[in-house]
Amino acid sequence: MNTIKKSLLSLAVASVVATPLLASAEGFGTISANIGFTSDYYFRGISQTGNDGALQGGFDWSHDSGVYAGVWSSNVDFGDVHLETDTYLGFANEIGDTGIGYDVNVLRYNYNDSPKYETTEWTAGLSYSYFSASYSYSSDWYNTDESSSYVKLGFDYDALPYGLALSASVGNSFGDAFDKDKVGSADDFDYVDYKVGVSKDFYGLSWELAYVGNDMGRKECESYAYDYDAGNCDDRFILTVSKSMDDVTKSTEGSELPIAANIAYVTDYYFRGISQTGNDGALQGGFDYSHDSGVYVGVWASNVDFGDVHLEVDTYLGFANEIGDTGIGYDVNVLRYNYNDSPDYETTEWTAGLSYSYFSASYSYSDDWYDSGESSNYVKLGFDYDELPYGLAMSASVGNSFGDAFDKDKVGSTTDFDYVDYKVGISKDIVGVNFDLSYVGNDLSKKECNAYGYDDDKGNCDDRVILTVSKSF
Question: Which residues, in sequence order, are CB contacts of 352 under 8 Å at separation 6+?
């Protein structure tokens, strides 16, 4: 089951039932995690990201009884709304020994800063062998005060040559929420969406190429403010790269998979003293490959809130090792900050660091900081101690941003606005998931905060407490 593409929404019940639940830890059940990058977030025939890429993932809990619950998120592009976070609760099992699986669940679509979009949907489904069918119903579809229905048929076959798997589905959206009066049409605008995809596991990741589309017309597409001319309702090919873990309570030590993954939910994406999400939450995660020589490469992403820019994707390459048997570690890397739809923000930064025991220090340099045409420097000191009572760990850091990019002329000040940021946090692993509570802040003034377009009046540069829930696997 590919949880990245909201399988619980589409009720791929065959996968849910055919995959035995892993042994529960003292009756608690099991926790799993998933993360993925997709070239377009496609949902029932329509792009949710304006034909742009998305970071997606979440956590799931399941019990031997068949009860499960979870959370799943993706960045979206709905004007001021940049993050969708879905929560769900369900029950899946098999009817006796018939091989027929069933699944009943309720799902809540949640959107940051926009409760008017929030929707509750109920789904019931059946599966047998390679086939599945489901019916979904909402009494108030996306704040229309009208009901919607969705019927979906699916086919999943994983026994193709060369380790390939085939998936296909067709769905129909209909109901009062799709009434003809909404688009001035002579007919109701019930519509059909479809998908055909081929996938393969490769280097520990799942790779899928799918063709998706619908039979919508212009009026149908634009009735809910999607942009038909921009191709938001066009048929398209979508590439998805994902990784899931059946049970994050189990150790991955000794795993032969060369690519690791990580996922995190944070109440605010804090970067060097400033909120990157307008004091709102973020989904973050990525993939890493490391070699025994010390060479590593990876990609990491997070939703952001920079006007029309909703997604940050960072790529990096580095080398880390130890100086002989001294216990002194070193790390040299180059990182590229990339932003969808905005090459103006893109920045390359070089970093060199040392570490010893609980202490670390690093220096970062960019010759063109966020398209300013001027250089930046960042020095950071860190302390990490993981031997506190009750399995607690403490981390603390302080950093200083300075250089030509922080020149006094930018804010009409008499002095340059070099600034300091800081963080103190406590963390603990619980059932294989890390929980971190940190206090973060800076010494920025109002002028300094607003110099790069951040909004000091909204508290984007205020000190704050941040909760992070994360897992690496």
Answer: 330, 331, 332, 362, 363
Query: The pTM is what?
Result: 0.85
Distance CA(323)–CA(452), nearest Å, equals: 39
Asked if residue 19 has pLDDT above 60, the reply is no
Instruction: Give phi and psi for 10, each to the nearest 5.
Output: -85, -5
Residue 216's Cβ-side half-sphere holds a number of Cα atoms within 13 Å equal to 31
Q: How far is CA 221 from the centre of its chain?
A: 26
Whether residues 263 and 241 share a domain: the answer is: no
Q: Which domain holds residue 52?
A: 3-245
**Residues linked to residue 443 through DSSP beta bridges, in sequence order:** none
pLDDT at 20: 34
Q: Maximum Cα–Cα distance for the chain, whole Å?
A: 79
Give yes or no: residues 68 and 120 share one domain: yes
Name the residue type at position 79.
G
Number of domains, the chain = 2
Q: Check whether residue 86 and residue 181 sit in a common domain.
A: yes
Count Cβ neighbours within 10 Å for each residue of 252-289 and write b for 16 or more, e otherwise.
eeeeeeebbbbbbbbbbbbebbbbbbbbbbbbbbbbbe
